Amino acid sequence: MGILSNIFHKIFPGSAPKPAPAPAQAQAPKPAAPAPSAPAAPQAQAQAQAQPQAAPMQQVDVEQILNDMQKSSGQQLNWRTSIVDLLKLLGLDSSLAARKELAAELHYTGDTSDSATMNIWLHRQVMNKLAANGGKVPADLRD
Fold first, then answer.
1. If residue 61 lies in a helix (H) or strand (E), which one and from where to where?
2. C-alpha distances in Å from residue 113, one per residue of 18, 55, 82, 96
3. How many domains does the chain have?
4. Is 62 exposed, middle or buried (0-12, 13-18, 19+ CB in 10 A)?
5. What value does the mean pLDDT take over residues 71-94?
6. Which structural domain range is residue 86 located in?
7. How large is the average pLDDT for residues 86-115?
């Protein structure tokens, strides 16, 4: 499991969406399933009608969740601007090696030796991913 998935599991407990694949990881279209034969079609329709519709995914207030986590942690962490503090708040590894791993996972193309620039980019990308996957993230934390 990747670091981004761990972040999702901490913020979306129990119903964590899987992060949307990055554009470079887009999957090839699946081949179309063969059309059902005429006698099976009414049965397939009946099964489709019998299954309940999936409830729309409720948006999760990421800011509230993280603020609540910070209050209960007793630590002064600036999760709003620091990827290191965000990872610490979530109880995840915030080491440079872990952040480089997260950068690779998110397809960072910059210089990972420039940790300040990488950290800013990582924080913004994590917030964008949270917003793209059902998280309500303040506009000033996203692109």
1. strand 60-61
2. 29, 44, 17, 10
3. 1
4. buried
5. 96
6. 58-141
7. 97
